[in-house]
Every structure is written in C-alpha cells, then in structure tokens.
Write a structure and sequence with these properties.
The structure holds two protein chains of two kinds. By secondary structure, chain A is an alpha/beta fold. Chain A folds into two domains: 4-225, P-loop containing nucleotide triphosphate hydrolases (Rossmann fold); 226-309, Alpha-Beta Plaits (2-Layer Sandwich). Chain A is 37% helix and 30% strand. In chain A, strands 6-7-8-3-9-10 form a six-stranded mixed β-sheet, sandwiched between helices. In chain A, strand 4 and strand 5 (67-68) form a beta hairpin. In chain A, helix 8 crosses helix 11 (298-309). By secondary structure, chain B is mainly alpha-helical. Chain B has one domain (2-237). Chain B is 82% helix and 0% strand. The two termini of chain B are 28 Å apart. The relative contact order of chain B is 0.14. Chain A binds chain B through residues 49, 52-56, 74, 77-78, 80, 82-93, 97, 101-102, 104-107, 149, 159, and chain B through 2-3, 6, 9-10, 13-15, 18-19, 81-83, 85-93, 232-233, 236-237.
Amino acid sequence: MVEYAIRTEGLTRHFGPVIAVDHLSLEVPAGIVFGFLGQNGAGKTTTIHLLLGLLEPTSGQANVLGYDVRTQSDKIRARSGALLEYSGLYERMSAEDNLDLYGRIYHMSAADRRARIKELLVHLELWDRRKDQVGTWSRGMKQKLAVARALFHRPSLIFLDEPTAGFDPVAAAALRDDLAGLVTREGATVFLNTHNLAEAEKLCGQVGVIRKGKLLALGSPDELRFKKGGAQAEVVGRGFTDDILALLRERPEVASVEIQNGHLILGLRGESEVGPLVSLIVRHGGEVEEVRKGAASLEDVFLTLMEEEH
Amino acid sequence: MSDILTILWKEWKDTLFQGGWRAWVRPVLLIGILGIFEPLVGSKNNAWMNLSPIEMLVFLWFAFFVIISVVADSFAGERERHTLETLLASRMPDRSILLGKVVSVLCYGWGVMVVSLFLGAGVFNLAHAQDRFIFYPTDMLFFTLLLGLLVGTLGASAGVLLSLRISTVRQAQQVLTIGTLVLGGAVFALLQLLPASFFEMFTLDQILWMAAGVVVVLDILLLAYSILRFQRAKLILS
C-alpha cells in the first residue's frame, strides 16, 4: 500500500483557451474519503478524467496508486473503480448481469463473482430485484447499483463523481449512509467529487476546494473551519439595527454578519472572543438574551473561499 | 482473448439478444427468408444447391446487410445511453473493446448466414426429396463461408469505425446505408467496365481468390485504421 493514493504536482489541462484544471497540486493519503468540492464547471470531473488516465494532462504530473497517469493509466484503471457523471449501467441487462460484466472485466472467478453479487446486493437491499432489467428501476436503486459496481472488484481507489446529484434529501441521505457503510467496510480510498457540502462534511476525512480549476484550500474539514471559517456566534436578542450591523462589519475579528430568522449570525476570524462584540451591540442599543458560539460549517468555509476569490 | 469474450458476452446480453422475444424477430425473419422461403419456392432444377455466383452474392449481401443493420449501435449506442464513459474508465484494453465489438457483430451476421445456408440445404432436401441427399459443392460452400466472413469483417470494421466517430446511432446508420449503396454501385460499375475477356482469363476459383484477397487487404486497412482511431481521450470528449 502506498502512503499517498493520489499525488499531483502542477497538474494542468487546457481545452483550447479554457483552463479546466490549473496547476493542481494535492496529496490524498491512502485509506481516506477525500472530498473534492467545487461548483459546477469548477474542473472536478476533468480532474477525475486526468487521474484515471482518460485525458492527457497539458502539463504537470500525477501519480495514482504509485503509477504515472501518462504512462501507466492501464494499471491505475485496473486498481480503481469509478462512478462517473452517469451511472453507466446497461439498462437492458439485469442488475446481476451488470455486476457480473464488471467482474468479468476485472477477471474475477465465476465463484467469486457470484458471492460478491450476493454480498453487495443483499447489503444494498436489491437482492430480490436482481433479475429485473435495470431500466425498470428507480433512479435511487440504479445509483445504489452503480455504487456496487464501482466497488465490485474490491478496488484500492474509488472515484465517485457527484453520486447523489439530483436526489431528494431523503434518498441522498440513504445513499450516503450506504456509501459510508460500504466504504468503511471495504477500506478503500475514495475520491469524492461533490458540491453537496453536507455530504462532504459527513463522509470526508479531508477536502479540497476547487474553483475555475484552481485549488483554493486543502485539509481536513476541521482544519478548514479553523483556518478559513473560524468560529461562529449566534446572538439571540432584539434591536440589531443597520448601524450596529455596520459597526460589527468594521471589526477586524468579524468575517461576516447576517440576520437569520431574527438572530444575528457572526462569522469570526480565528479564535476571536465574542465578549467585546456583545458589549458593542449593547452599547449601541441592542438587547442580547443569549449567545451561542460554535464552529463554522463547511458551507460557511466554502462560501468564504468563493467570496475571497471574487 | 478473455477480454474480447467478455465484450462479446456483453454485446450478446445488452444489444443483440436482449429484450425478450422481440430480439429474436430479426434473425428469425432473416433466416426464414433465406433458409426456408428461398429453398422452398425460389429453387428450380437444383439451382439453389449449386451455390452459383448469384446465390453466393445473395448470401454475402445478406451477411453484410445483417451486420450493417446492427453495427451502428456499437459505440454510438453506448454513447447515447451514457455507458461508454464507464466502460472506458475500466481496465478493459482499447483493442479488446474494439475487436470485441467487431467480433460480436461479425458472429451475429455471419452466424445468421451460416444457419440460413445449412438450414436451406435441409429444407431443400425435405421439400424436393430425391433419392440422395444433395449438398452444396464443397468449393463453393468454402468460398461462401470465407467470403461471408471477409465481407462481414469489412462491414463490421467500417461500421465500428463510423460508430466511433459519429455521435448518434441514427446518423451512423444513415451514413452506413448510403456508403453501402455507393460501394455496391461502384463495385457493379467496375465489373461492368471490365472487358468480358478479363473474366475469361481466369477460372471462377481464381476470381474468387482474387476477390478474397482484395477484401482481406481492405479488412486489414480498416481494422488498423480503427485501432489507430480508438483513443480514449477523444471518445471521452465526444
């Protein structure tokens, strides 16, 4: 097992004048779920294509599972599983045959394929429908099957590109739970592309934030919260006038100020104290009933990063 | 080889014989025409069993037609159904994907031709019962099977190449149909242009060997070009 599942240095990909991935340098330790966060068109899918050796980099280097993406991409694909933008399932084939096909592709024995099909379909509660044509299934069931297919040959590294995109919150949460359970059990490294921050917060040990092909931040969610988002304070009370809000915005320790459901939400830089801010509010006529201090969410961090780039 | 067999298995399950009884309508209909109807009603004085160049051309055209009617789906169909990207992201080698697709449609078209050929012989003997079992002349049967395979490979390679480059199945089918008509017309015009004395210089066997040689060269060129054109990066971006 290599120390780093993925290592890139200055990885760049141009499509004509467009720079899809711009000098991307990152290290993804083996055995973790790595969340690659970014808006649509940020370069996440192109990065997966580059890491799988499906696209040639314009410049820079990338090493995946110890293999070079330019010269050893066949070895990378042999040890990886992928659920890309589309589920990629053969809808006229049964669920069983879809998994069997990928078992054959990865040269698994017939006995191993049979056992693995049962293991995964039972785990995902799809076993009773294994003979159905996949085209007759719901979107959620198809996506579960596609996850099973990506894991089928027990790869060391799994690429998942927006696995819950377009799902309702309940279905997304269910798939996330399945995904978390399977990933923990299989012990593989997961490279998860997502713009769903709750998903990243729940699943990922480390995250990278990308915008217009550039990596803006890299670290564990906690590290990013501390470095970029700092703490957050929710002030319950009354009389939060525009003057008070303007005064708060001028304070160096305050990163953001907003009113949510009548409560004042202050984004703080680093480990700032809330006391002086409460004094300021009270001095200018505001009433404070309660103050709750907590860490910023990954969403706050993400939004802060996006704003900084603007 | 096992990778080519895997693609063959997939094509069999996904494209050629999937969808219940409907999937069998086309091959059964085609086999019915050439393997039952023609030997029953279209054969007088054992002509059918002689496998003359005309009958041979019917069988070859038949194999070619079956192949070009299904081959457009090979890559364009996968692209339309969004399954190509996942297949390309797997460990399956480029050549195995390409050759697996060629071999699968070739087996289908050539298989339909072979079944029709042997069924036709059986049906002919049953319908026109004579004191002995009549079978095709060995040399003509050999050339029909060989040329069927070669012409089928030509259709499969050309179809796969087009399917690689054209984004929809419908477009690929249209181009293949027009291309086949143009090619057929060109071959016919060429044969018309050749003086009769040219054919008198050779025996039928020699002419068939020459035809096989020309088609083998075309097969090799088309397959080599298809292998050259099969690039994951281009397919991903298409």
